[in-house]
Design brief:
A hairpin with a 2-residue loop joins strand 4 and strand 5. By secondary structure, the protein is of the alpha/beta class. Helix 1 packs across helix 2, helix 8 packs across helix 9 and helix 11 crosses helix 12. It has two domains: 158 residues, 3-Layer(aba) Sandwich (Rossmann fold), CATH 3.40.50.300; 71 residues, no CATH class. It contains twelve helices and ten strands. A six-stranded parallel beta sheet has the order 1-10-2-9-6-3, sandwiched between helices. Strands 4-5 form a two-stranded antiparallel sheet. Strands 7-8 form a two-stranded antiparallel ribbon.
Length: 241
Amino acid sequence: MATTAKWAELKVLCEQAMLRRYYIWGPPGVGKSRFGMDVLKKNFENVYQITLNDDISVQELLGHYVPKGNEFVWHDGPIALAMRDPKGALVINELPRASGAVRDLMLAVLDDNSIASIALPTGEILKPHAKFSVMATGNDKPEECLTEALIDRFELVLHLPMPNPELIEKLNKVRPASGTLVERSYHSMTNFVSPRKMISFLTLTARRGDSLTELQAAELVFGSLAKEVMTALALLPTDTR
């Protein structure tokens, strides 16, 4: 099932659905990871989080042996910890960036809790607790970046094309028009300004003192878009809602 809706509606949908496997996709900076964390924290005391890339190994995620005195002892990685923890859930950031070996691991992690199992180097067969839930994120449509086998494991696919409106309001209160600029930039998706970048700019300008002009601060954060951003901040309506 795939759906696109407003933030508040999606949160209610996820909280009421009580499903176990979700995939959230949308452009960088909209808050996919935060959305996943917020939803899972409604029902789980401990939410573990991992961010994947080509260099992350299976051992880093599942666990490895570490020296202790004259012996080596097994140390669980974040996935093993989340699967064992009866109050635990897992957020997987940037799933499409995972290496081939880690993607193979994810087939087991994302399997139904009743049949999922992973063989650890210790000889133990790791199984998830009965309510174990996973939210995975990525920037692109799952059909464009994931295999059919992975896509099939997700019970709900959510599309977040725009930043959290509550964050937009907060930005506008800190610097009039800053949130409006972020929101409007996502409509064009050519030179969008992420909330993360805007927060960095506002933090830098608040602490810059006399040694740095506002334009110089913008250049440090936005690079070649600095002048365009400063012009937009000056011209956009100062909606502080």
